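Escalation from tier 1.

The customer reports that the assembly of two entities below gives different structure tokens on two consecutive runs. Tier 1 could not reproduce it. I'm attaching the input and our single run for tier 2 to review.
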Amino acid sequence: MTRGLQELYENWRLAELLRIFPELSIQPVVNGQTRVTGALAFSLQYQKLECIDDRYTISIEIPENFPRPLPKTRETDGRIPKKFHTDPDGTLCLGSPARLRLALGDNPTLPRYVKKCVLPYLYSFSYFQRYGVLPFGQLDHGLNGILQDYTSLLGVTSEKAAQEMVGLASLRKRKANKLPCPCGSLLRAGRCHHRQINRLRTQLGRPWLRAEYQSLLRQR
Amino acid sequence: MTTKDSYMTTLLEQIIDLLDIPTSHYEKAAERYHSLGEWLHREQSIIAKFNPQVCPQGSFRYGTVVRPIFKSDEYDLDLVCEMVLRKSAVTQKQVKTLLGTEIISYAKAHGFSDPVEEKNRCWRLSYADDVKFHMDVLPSVPEDPNFIALLPQLGVPYELAKLSIAITDKRHPKYTVIDPDWPRSNPKGFAGWFEGRMRMAADDRIRKLVLKRAYASIDDVPPYEWKTPLQRSIQILKRHRDVMFKRSPDLAPISMILTTLAAHAYEGESNIYQAFSNIVNKISDFVRSSKPRIPNPVNPAEDFADRWASDIRLEQNFWAWHTQMKADLRNCVELLGSKQLPDKVQRLFDLSLTSEQLNELSKMGAVSTSAAKTAAPLIRVNTAPKPWRRSD
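Tier 1 run:
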């Protein structure tokens, strides 16, 4: 590695993250992973719901190949209970992998990760603590939750249809368009839900979708 | 100067006041190595005939010592003892042992309670009185003229190159045999280069000290008295590094790296804030992308970052530290005039501004940048991922 890590930090916009959230700081790199810890203070408004000001103490472990895989973010003050959408190792489950990847978009930087993935989760918990309701809902655990999210992303009502659309998105467009649309319309996909399927393919890529589809099939 | 610049200048000067060591510590160190030098030259000394010259190197030479983080820590006084011996006539081990014999007798004659310790390249004497030091004395001999002659071709001025020395290392494969291949160093040459980078900025102060008759001539004024913005900046960088790596000091960027890069980046600025912010922003430019990553300016074949290749975390931590240093400097500026500034200084440097210092800052007037940045940023979100969990 020559200038590799310096460029990596520049690509991640790590300096910008520290500028926006100055109570975060980089910890010494001990096991090869960059870790940022400290207080995340925010003032966030979701759609027309109330603006909530809050702060959490967190730790973010950023893998060298960010954004794949995504960082592991933990809340380190014990405020968020383990049973609230947290993995056994304490990592906050910010959303389904597909949704998080879409949130990062083509420009996966750390400020974007925090603003689009971490802060909404923390807002959601703050809101839940105040009002007992999750402002943007939640997903079931495991693959069920992933499938629920695809269903909502694709704008369909049937989870089976959503699953098969993930399958079509993992195929080349020309081939996928000729196959029957999974929504049950009896039309070819190319004349039915092709836009949603194409968008999914462009945004997430066929190899990744192939792996998702395989996981969903194994579960069923 | 803008209000922000004056404020930052004052703040940095205050920080330096808190982490600097008194001149008396430097004088004490000088007293100690002069005392050792006299011992080595006494009639009964087995090395007197080799004209041993003892000089400081490292932070005591450059005037960049900072107070230790932990009160129990000691100051490191690095010394080099050069003897007139040829590599063709002695082994590294013989040179090490010769000096060691006299260091041990010095310790015995002066009632040292801790035993002299042999390290890979030096002998360590620990002082346990009012100022806690240990003195690491590195034995050395002059380097070969034919090696020295190559250095000007690599861009090293001859006046600095000729000061090159050969040192000993217990781990060296040729440690016990007569061989020209010894580890190399040039502490005096490096000091000469370092002083050259800041000499002009020190002019005024040097002349004032001579006029005050604190020193007989300008050549007598030691670098620790110059107190240039370069030296001050290095002190601040070192302290920031010490605090960041408090729990993992072995991973921290070494002082030679910070000192060399800062000296490259320094362009003679006379104001501490200008010097410090330019240095912080530019030091990364002087890390090369291929080996030697950070060459010794007086021996380009030597790489101060040579350990980066064998432990990638060392380079990772350099960039991590630098990114954090830049962010922290920027955030300090944003917090000027705010109540959060003293806490920030405490967190970054493990230093508490005194009440006099706080009063001085509070008299400096309002700084417009501060208020806007102390509030958390307002973020509006229209779509959000739904919380999920991988498994039950």
